[in-house]
Design brief:
Elements lengths: L1 H16 L15 H13 L5 H9 L2 H4 L4 H8 L1 H9 L8 H11 L5 H20 L7 H16 L6 H11 L4
Helix pairs in contact: 1-3, 2-3, 2-8, 3-6, 3-8, 5-6, 7-9, 8-9, 8-10
The chain binds zinc ion.
Zinc ion binds next to loops.
């Protein structure tokens, strides 16, 4: 029961922090749809039952994209959740190309929990780009995102055969 409470608290916190944000798709979907999708992919398609990983999935973009610090996540959700969130948070002081390069380079070194969240995050993003792409993304940009995501995921394979298969199926929709 404590585990269920942790996951629900994470969902509520993420919904609050992302409340004014929208996804980049043409319909400008509520941002919270994305972390919810990532957690659902882990639970439903990856059979992940670890509440720490599911809570981290719900919170995975709060530090990168809202006014939330890792210290705050640690105080509210504990060290293990905070560690995973920290591992999947990019350093926005670096330029975009460098951040993309680091994701490929560092995928292999991440913890099991961070690898799972990363994998589900990429599955969710590929599906979104295939079905309702960000407004203004031309064909080349969408294709580049698919190629780069494959490189990131190649670096962390071995963590979940089921999620890796789901990723490979998502890749088949490459534009
Ligand atoms: Zn994400």
């Amino acid at each position: 029961m404590e585990e269920l409470k942790l996951v629900l608290r994470a969902a509520e916190f993420a919904a609050d922090r992302h409340r004014t944000q929208r996804r980049k798709d043409a319909e400008a979907s509520p941002y919270i749809n994305h972390p919810l999708a990532v957690a659902a992919i882990l639970a439903e398609e990856g059979d992940v039952t670890d509440a720490t990983v599911l809570a981290a999935a719900l919170l995975h973009d709060t530090v990168e994209d809202t006014e939330t610090s890792i210290v705050e996540i640690e105080q509210l959700f504990g060290h293990d959740v905070a560690r995973i969130v920290a591992e999947v948070t990019e350093d926005k002081s670096l330029d975009k190309a460098e951040r993309k390069r680091l994701q490929v380079e560092r995928a292999h070194h991440k913890s099991q929990g961070a690898k799972l969240v990363k994998l589900a995050d990429k599955i969710a993003n590929l599906r979104d780009i295939a079905t309702c792409p960000p407004a203004g993304w031309d064909l080349q940009r969408r294709r580049d995102y698919f190629s780069w995501s494959s490189k990131v995921i190649d670096g962390l394979r071995g963590v979940s055969p089921r999620l890796e298969a789901a990723f490979d199926r998502a890749c088949e929709a490459r534009p």
